[in-house]
Amino acid sequence: MSKISKFFKGGGSAASKGRKGPSPQEALARLRETEEMLSKKQEYLETRIERELAVARQHGTKNRRAALQALKRKKRYEKQLSQIDGTLSTIEFQREALENSHTNTEVLKNMGYAAQAMKKVHENMDLNKIDDLMQDITEQQDVAQEISDAISNRATFGDEFGEDELMAELEELEQEELNKGMRDVRLPSVPSTSLPSRPARRRPEDEDEMKKLAAWAS
Question: A GO BP term, please (predicted)?
Fold first, then answer.
């Protein structure tokens, strides 16, 4: 049996029925009732004190005996009021302590239930099986990672052809395109008319005649 379970000897409703004395809830209810009763008594005493003061003022020196009796009653009421204040402080302290104790008890009880539940869950667990399971999970994660890496790698289809062979074929295609372009070029046609012939060289006698004409014209 765990320590928390031993703290609650037996626990459950059977132990509660066999327990002597009021429950924490019952004690707290009684303390609150007492506080309410004493608060009402305070209000009553405060009213009586104000009334006795009024009587003392009313009689004053005219009826000294009645005034003094009123002041004596006021003093007794004030003493009772002071006692009630002290009693209320004690009850308030006791109530707070009981509330805290009840809260702690409930917390420990719930922690005990949780500890028992955890123990029951762990009874069906084998540490060796857990280690094997975690190892299997790790292995499967590695396999999944390898598959992902293989899928994401660039495909290498066509790598069985040599690069030199492909370059030669590419150059051949480029040469064919160049030859085709040359065939499509049109050269200018040869003119059908004959070109003017070179002027004939003048003879010396023709030059003499041209000089004579020039002299005559001048």
Answer: vesicle budding from membrane
Q: What CA–CA distance (Å, rounded) separates 12 from 49?
A: 52
The answer to whether position 210 is within a domain reads no
Q: Closest by alpha carbon to 5, among 142, 132, 115, 82?
A: 115
The reply to whether 30 falls in a domain is yes
pLDDT in tens, 163-209: 777 788 878 888 888 887 777 666 566 566 665 555 555 566 667 77
**How many domains does the structure of the chain reveal?**
1
Whose tokens are 């004959």? That residue is 194
Structure-block tokens of residue 27: 């004690």
Residue span of the structural domain in which 60 resides: 22-101
Question: Are 65 and 43 spatial neighbours (Cβ–Cβ below 8 Å)?
Answer: no
Assess if residue 49 is contained within a domain: yes
Provide the whole-model pTM.
0.43
> At a CB cut-off of 8 Å and minimum separation 6, what does 11 contact?
5, 109, 112
The reply to whether 8 falls in a domain is: no
How would DSSP label each residue in 139-184?
A: HHHHHHHHHHHHHHSPP-TTTTS-HHHHHHHHHHHHHHHHHHHHHH
Rounded to 10°, the helix 24-59/64-123 angle is 160
d(CA 43, CA 81): 9
